[in-house]
Here is the input.
Amino acid sequence: MLSPALLLQFLVSGIGVGCVYGLIGIGFCVIYNASGIVNFAQGGFVMLGGMVTYVLYARAGLALLPAAIIAVMLVAGLGLVVDRLVVRPLWSRKANTFVIILATLAVQIVMERATLLLVGDAPKSLPSFTAGGPLRLGPVAVSLQLLWIVAISLLLIWALALFFSRTKTGRAMRACAVDPQAAALLGVPVSRMLAYAFSISAGLGAIAGILITPTQFVAYNLGVPFAISGFIAAIVGGFGNPLGAFLGGILLGVTQSIAIVVVGAGYKNVVALSILLLFLLLRPAGILGARKAS
Amino acid sequence: MSLLEIQGLTKAFGGLLAVNDVTFSIEAGGIDAVIGPNGAGKTTLFNLISGAHPPTAGTVTFAGTHLTGLSPHKVAACGVVRTFQLVRLFGEMSAEENVRVGFHLSTRGGAWSALGRSRRMRAEEVEIAAKARELLALVGLSDRAETPASQLTYGQQRLLEIARAVAAGPRLLLLDEPAAGLDTAETDALAEIIRAINRRGVTILLIEHDMRLVMGIARRIVVLDFGRKIADGTPEAVARDPAVLEAYLGTTETALHA
Amino acid sequence: MTSLASISPERATARRRLPAMLLVACAAIAVIVAFGGYFVTVVCFAAIYALFVSGLNLFMGYTGQVSFGQNAFAALGGYATAVLTTRLHLDPLAALVCGALLSAAIAAAVGYPTLRLRGHYLAMATLALGLIAYEVAVQWNGLTQGYMGISGIPGLGFAGFEIDNERLQAIVLLAIAALGMGAAVRLRRSRFGRALGAIAGSEEAAQALGVDVTRYKLWAFVIAAVYASIAGSLMAQYVGFVSPEVFGLSMVVLGFTMLYVGGIGNVSGPLIGALIVEALPQAVSGLKDYQDLVYGVGLLVILIYAPKGLAAVDRGVPFKPGSKS
Here is the structure.
């Protein structure tokens, strides 16, 4: 029997996880908006964010904050590398959608396997950002990590919004999203925008990974489930709409949380995948509607 | 009974009425044309007839059968086949194979018979290969039979698409701007080919901007402007119609008679 | 979506050439099977994968659609064989047929809504299918025994007769693969295959000519699923063991690597690709994890530098001496 307090508890934890899904979803949107590419390796960046931080923190002995910052920068750099080496050659010769998807999937596998070889398959974790017990708000316990997740997510969204509306680069990226040819004619270096898009998405993914690792764990094979969650978030929100992706993420997190109560934690991924299929088949335009058709 | 009857056909895209309450009919046996300035709704009209879009209102009747709302392949099966404004060939296939696809409706057999390879199937394959070559000859592409469609010249591609459409055995052939991008010599050859197809018993309805071609072969012309039908009659009558002249914004009588 | 088919069957007939690679492959196979040894295992796996990839080739190469989830049907076939033979003691051939029928049914049911999608939506949906299959295999402990998998599956053979000799196994598997590839050729050079190619070329034009695009796409999807299912069943019997990992994401990448190495749309591509890719691990010492890494990188290299696949670069050897090129 599900008490309202328990339900509320699941809701709250669902929001936490949902924020992370939302960040991953935004990552998808940024790259998609810049190029029309769906980056199937996005989950890999998330996994690496947590993993690299762990290595720097637990193996190299850095404090948590510097480890996290360096990890984010490294992963963002990796995003640039992926763009340069893999995506750019394919994109500039206007390769088939399928080929690009396959290529990003291959990148995901490479990241996964390389991590497995270097770090092993045991799950790793990070400590919560601040030590201490959960806050009690009435019947609900809200962990401090959750508050960090929500706070940092909102901060990131605000920063991104500023970036895209106030800075020259951000506006140029938006121009590319609307009409790449017109943007190119106006002198916007479109391929450089793509590089920015990849490093921003990779960085976002890394932060998402670092945020969520303290609440669960990180392992080499979490890339794909993360990617699925982010993709669902993006689709539910209407692919191409970053704010929608964030809200979609929260929706997914909460739904998943509640569904777990019914079917058990083991089927968490099946729930997510089923939601994905449902949306793809019934409402690919998402709840908030898509800005771009497929 | 007319071969094709269009009644009150309307198509709205959001707030825009691409085709607005269009009514006309086509009699069997001739070559008729739909003309109008750019954006008049001609291709949309073809899309409504061929089933690519469902109409917002109105009906399309072909030889007594309701075509309205049927999916494109069923419309083709009823005997109405169309070509496209921007050529849509099967680029990787040879010219002959493109035409052989056209015989899809007149042949039978799916995956099972493909595996079984009965004598009937093999005979059929031989037969349609011969028919395909005959159609290629009709449009003058015999020497290009083995060439991949993507390697043909633009003019050849347009002709191939027509040959392929004829292979589907239509009673009504819808040609969407067949002369687009062709020079004078090519257009004259096209006119001959269209007449030859017509002599085989295929009724033809074409969309065209090339007035010389239209005036030369069409028996009747329907004029659209902003989605509405503004004229409907013989070439001579249409050429003199003031509404038509006005729609073509500054086009003089001379140009229409050119 | 641009067509992926790289050679029309008509051109192939007109040229009457056998790809040089295929000749080499056949020679290599003959040598291996005659001499036996560890490489026979390579040939066996290659034959099984050739079947799997043939189905994929049919759906993607002929029809120009995308499917990242064929491994789901391989899993279905593999687990059907595993469960039916070990629990119900069904004859392996009957189990294989059951698996194939089940896969066909599920492919038809799932394909109908899914194939209406395009581009990366279709890619994601099919990927989701494959992943769901993996998750179900892991979670449905009662049936599949989760990560532990099911062992004790009877070896290749049927009606009580088991093929012990490994060379004979290789020959049987190759014969099955050859049958599968032969069927794929027949399907291609027919009205059915032409319709599929038309869909790859231009769905709208195909419809305008009377091709029921939805139905043909579904047929192609179901056929590919049956190929995958049979490959999965054979894999289960040959190895004697199934687990979720066998049919996971690495099968997807492996399959595509083979498809690209062999050349998309080429009929012999799957076998050539399968042989090359299966033979590679002998060059890199055995660890499965290194393999996937190498394949991933290899696939990337091919996609970027030889997008039509390696075998498409190979213009072939004249079938009759003195034939025109």
Remarks:
- Chain A has eleven helices and two strands.
- Strands of chain A lie at 135-137, 140-142.
